[in-house]
Amino acid sequence: METNKPGRGFWVTTAILALISTAGILYFWMIPTVEPWLPPEGGHPGDQVDWLFRFMASTAAALYTFVVGYIVYFAIAYRRRKSDPPDALGFHVHDNTKLEVTWTVLPTLFVVLLSILSVRIWYVLQVQPNNGLVVESIGRQWYFTFRYPNVNGEVANEMHLPVGVPVTLNVTSQDVIHSFWVPDMRLKADMVPGMINTIRFTPTRVGRYQIICTEFCGTAHSTMDKQIMVVETQAQYDAWYHGWQVRNANVSNALPTVSTGTIDLAGGNAAAGQALFSQKCSACHALGPFTQRIVGPGLRGVLHDPTHPNLVDGDPATPANVAKILQNGYTGSIGHMPNQSDNGLSNKDITNLVAYLNSLR
Amino acid sequence: MSVIAEHGGIAEHIHPEPQGFIRKYVFSLDHKIIGIQYIITAFVFFILAGLLAEVIRIQLLHANGGFLTPDTYNEVYSVHGSAMVWLVIIPMLTGGFGNFVMPVQIGARDVAFPWLNMISFWIFPVAGIMLFSSFLMGAPVAGWTEYPPMSLQGAAGTSMWCAAIFLVGVSSTLTGMNFLVTMLKMRAPGMTYTRMPLFCWGQFATAPLLMIATTALAAALAALFMERQFGVPFYDPTKGGSPVLWQHMFWFYSHPAVYIMILPAFGIISEVVSVFSRKPIFGYRLIAFSSAAIALTGFMVWAHHMFTSGIAPYMQLPFMIITFIIAVPTGVKIFSWLATMWGGKIHLTTSMLFALGFLALFTFGGISGVFLAAIPFDLHVHGTYFIPAHIHYVLVGGSLMGIFSGMYFWFPKMSGRYMSEFWGRMHFALFIIGFTGTFLPMHYLGAMGMPRRVATYDPQFQYWNQFETIFSFVMTLSILIFFINMLYSIRRGKPAGHNPWGARTLEWQIPSPPPYYNFKHIPSVFGLPYDFTEPLPYLHLEEELTDSPVPVGAHS
Description:
The complex is a heterodimer of chains A (361) and B (556).
Chain A: H1 8-30, E1 43-44, H2 46-77, H3 97-126, E2 133-140, E3 143-147, E4 159-162, E5 167-173, E6 178-182, E7 187-191, E8 197-203, E9 207-213, E10 227-232, H4 234-247, H5 270-281, H6 319-328, E11 330-332, E12 335-337, H7 340-343, H8 347-359
Parallel strand pairs in A: 2-5, 4-10
Antiparallel strand pairs in A: 1-8, 2-3, 5-8, 6-7, 6-9, 9-10, 11-12
Helix pairs in contact in A: 1-2, 2-3, 5-8, 6-8
Chain B: E1 3-7, E2 10-14, H1 21-26, H2 31-59, H3 70-105, H4 114-133, H5 150-153, H6 157-185, H7 198-230, H8 243-277, H9 284-297, H10 313-341, H11 350-373, H12 375-381, H13 386-415, H14 421-448, H15 462-492, E3 524-525, E4 538-539
Antiparallel strand pairs in B: 1-2, 3-4
Helix pairs in contact in B: 2-3, 2-4, 2-15, 3-4, 3-6, 3-7, 3-8, 3-13, 4-6, 6-7, 7-8, 7-9, 8-10, 8-11, 8-13, 9-10, 10-11, 11-13, 11-14, 13-14, 14-15
């Protein structure tokens, strides 16, 4: 009859696992940055999130080493051997109150500690800074736009922020749920139509960071990762900010609505149309031939393609009919194109876009 | 004519076995046949949804996709997720193993409501066919979660999805009610709650979850269906609805649903680890009560899926802390299984190997769950590939490994034959390798910046995506081996006798496959089923067996 005592191998194994666990813990606390596991960190409180990651990863590594180590060790050391009788049994042990209390209480203490640490960092995320920049971002299918204080209308393409200034970023959406994520800042908020969610952070490192949508938002969701958050010096930021103030000086702050009646197409500026195309159309339309489809067809020569004399709604491809689709959108069996309001296009924007599309051959 | 006799306070009442193929195998009232029907149907849907998974991996071979259009790709992963959750894991573990094993384990002749059981089953394949038929009219695209307003824009198949999931929910609810009444009212004399096998405790904790949580999902689905078909504005914010309302309702179901998918698997693992360690399960009471504790707290954590969605900041905290707390009873279970192995005489059968694999992989998934529960870290990885990585570790590494373990364990009871141990080990080895190669790198990809549900992605992530796709084929190969092994063994496997593993729960004390009425006499129970050194704690079982017992360990 065997005794119900762990053998020497058990304690040797435990010592080895303790060594490996210690190495794991040391690894996650000694590496200078967590960059092997997370993208480069660009702001506050991203640094605190990284600290929490170190804490959780080191504990997890230690715990997991023990669990897997014991599984493997037990499976080998206590396996039934050929020499054992077929009906051999293991130790007759039902339970051990001391052990059970230990492995209930220790994890509970860990949970208390982890809760305290998490709540402390959570609290930092909720505190409104006294002096800082308040920016808004609006998600649309499938791009982001931005609003800055004292800049009329919307800022397109890139979002610029001065380094070291606390930012309160209010996000919402105009159509479906999007999510605003900058991996380098470790922060994210869903852009929910009809709601405003807030991200508070302070960028501390100059750089260009990808803005990624992480909530599924339709056909071209995968392409909604092309826009950049630029963190730059105060002087560079001021220059950029002033540029948009001048550029948008005559823009209305009201959201564009779908205008009634036909749009006057005279005096379109093809260069302005080209800039608009890259902001508002290129997520779904390539500048290639008709067959180069992203979501909609390629638009090179949309007005000058003898093999496709008609538009999607069956009307002949004329500038007025293209303007009509830009104005009202189109929904049919092949998909959905947002209307003027959903795309945030003014009448002037449509005039410029038609002029640009007409210039393509 | 039925025979009625008083025996040990229980009416001995054996109905004659129905004759004819239709009554016996198609519209059967027998819980064992219904259980096998569930398992076969769920495996058919598993193959279909698994093929969709391979389509997903092929699309992701290249950063620019190109195998499918983005819209088709979105349909594929949405149906993959929905089918795996509602048509595979839940029916397999509750309707399948629950039906086959639980009534016998508590010493009953059937579930409390056999007709209801048959109806529950037959709703399920109909709902499954409806879900897959949504491809014909434009399947849902917004993932298995179908958040509005996105799902309001979806094609007609989204409404079909609502109806299919609603129906499968009806089936689940009825099954949960049926099981709960069975376990409350039909236990054999002496089968007290603290003598119930732990598999039954898993089902006992799951049944109320099925009954209560699924009704919330049904309400949410009905509202989504009405909004899509008749324009009733529950969720559309432009008409005064709330998109976040759906998320609350959906996760109020879907978080308990992950415990619906794991508690029965915990039960399987408890049986398997004890039997193959030839040792009593360590800490029976703590394992049983921790199942109940997990089921209860599982209702209080749903909003941890919504830390980025926009809920009141102070409401986030209790959800985070209660989620952390769930780690305690889960940890207790894992430590108890480890302690059961300690000092055992461990038979490394395929079933046991899958149980060990379950321990290793599920623990990993549980730990990444704690990472996700911490709000500051969740704000970074929410909506990225870290989430698919976590869910596949708990649902594939956890629930599916539990299903495989249970399949190798109870196959001899279902068929009277062993599955091949050699091919079982091949299945295990390839599955572990394929699984780890497929899902482990996803944690890294998510943390580094790859969002989920994308048809194309940043080229910097291409290396690991190709790596994952290659390993996903290894996993597929292992599952092919499993199916061939199972189909071959049904007729050609080595005869296994009635108790090949030397197990002590009641289902192993009657012939394999069990007779229609399970027990000639309802047994009386006077102890736990895990004391290997004691005689069996059952009375009135002596006349049941006609075959000569096969010695333990004959499989190898």
